[in-house]
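Attaching the record inline, Q. Sequence:
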Amino acid sequence: MKGFTSLLAGLVLAGALGAGAADSKDDSAKLIKLLQTSTVSLLKEGNARFAAGKAQYSNSDAARRMELAANGQEPLATILACSDSRNPVELMFDRGVGDLFVVRVVGNVAGVSEMATIEYGVTQLGTPVLLVMGHTKCGAVTAVVKGAELRGHLVALAKLIEPAAKKAKADATSAEDAVPVAIQLNVWQQIESILTSSSLVRAHAAAGKVDVMGAVYDIASGKVVWLGRHPDMERLLALPDAPDEHPAAPGLADAHAPAGNQLPVGSTPAASSAHGGAPAATQQGETGSGKSSGPLASAKPIAPGHGAPASAAPVGPTVKPAGKNPFGAPPPAEPHDEHPPAKPASAH
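Structure, as predicted:
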């Protein structure tokens, strides 16, 4: 049975055949917006079921797997999330096989590999929503905020979290108070990194092809707190394009997306045929953008009782190695350790 979004696509296409170019363009924009709001509604409804212990675990049977193997994937959303085992992305949204294109990495950071994977989800699979999601009690963010000693490649990863950690600590009375603030600020930091570094994602967002949003998952309650769009989204989308440092590889075949599901800027995304279920009505403003004088000025902690930082502290180049490592004790150094522990930064 065709899904709700496929039916919408068919209706819009039928109407566009008898309309002018301008009307067709307007219809396409309306369809994309409806896909975006419908996707968010489905994710919110699924999370409500999960948190209430009433998950349905749909789209997980053999028939679903066979369908995807034969026809390719058409996921609802691209999601950048943390690798923490307490952060089960598909489960928390009560979605099944092929529903979500998930990128998981410690600290939900947007490094090179994550950026490329996100670009694939947005531009090749045509997901109408890109969600960057942190979670409470994140070990990576906690380690950076508390200045834990990090080894190996974690040192480089921590640098991607440092700006958020420093801003959170600027007004916090203690490192403990700064952690929940930093977790939210890190979501904004990674969204800013994605839109600043990826002209592909930025172009799709500016054209309205993908809605980029933030969220924080509470590992205790099971609930996802939706943050909406980046408070400085308008500025980020207006950034000029840099010279293309990564030209398209000739002859690159898309072995994962179904035929016709690639989404260059200016085209209509392929509608999913397997998501199923009509979404509940989405109130206006659920995916609306917030306004702020700065990209991180309006951030508030998820946990009650923590004040949002009022100013940004200078971003330093190193991780201060002090305190207990939330990741656990570091392993003994190898004879030729290419990544020794980060050395203490000089006091400013």
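The domain at 4-237 is CATH 3.40.1050.10 (Beta-carbonic Anhydrase; Chain A). The mean pLDDT is 77.

More tomorrow.
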